[in-house]
Amino acid sequence: MAAPSVSASYAEDISMKSFTLTKTILLLAFNACILVGCGGEPSQHDIETAVAKQQQGIPKEMQDLIPQVKNVKKVGCKADGDKAYICDVEMEVSQLGKTQKGVGPVRFIKASDGWAASK
Known about the structure:
Shape: elongated
Largest sheet: 4 strands, antiparallel
Helix content: 25-40%
Number of strands: 4
Strand order of the largest sheet: 1-2-3-4
Distance between the termini: 84 Å
Strand content: 35-45%
Radius of gyration: 25 Å
């Protein structure tokens, strides 16, 4: 009399556990990445937010004298230390009724509340 075959059932059980473990590890890695911000250079959204934040810090009395940023586009970035990047940024700015577009380097620093544009 032949012994009952448990190998197919056993293999299926091992395969299911392996899949569940892999799925759990990937989920944990994804969540950890979200929580710590996953490092790396600032994104297009990060740059837009940092520039807008800098514009909001201008006193009302000076806003007419300072160029107003209308559009920002990330061209590229290179590391400048552990938590800083120098990014070439294309900006469209308006001042006194005139609009100009240009590309220039801007330094971005990873601060506790997100990316900040520095001088």
